[in-house]
Amino acid sequence: MAMNMQAMMKQARKMQAELAKAQEEAAQLTFEASAGGGMVKAVASGDSKLVSLTIDPEAIDPEDVEMLQDMISAAVNEALRGAAELGSQRISAATGNMKIPGMPGGIPGLF
After folding, report:
1. What is the pTM for the complete model shown?
2. What pLDDT score was predicted for residue 107?
3. What does the DSSP 8-state code read for residue 63?
């Protein structure tokens, strides 16, 4: 019984290290999205941070600021969604798709 507990603890430490590495790698991933036919481009990282925002000068119309705001919102939201999905996939791959409470993507089947 003691050997089984030691093996289990060793496995848990290994999985914890793999999860930490996956989270670090996920933060380095980026996802680019655009709106308005490429007039607005947003890049987000796997840890859900906006990395860059590019606005084509042609998109700037003082008479229609709302359209520019909508394009920015659409591009940023899509970039954040895509980056979060990439990050979640990376973490799920590292944890063998097990469900960890509080983690994006979780670890299905364990809890």
Report:
1. 0.69
2. 41
3. T
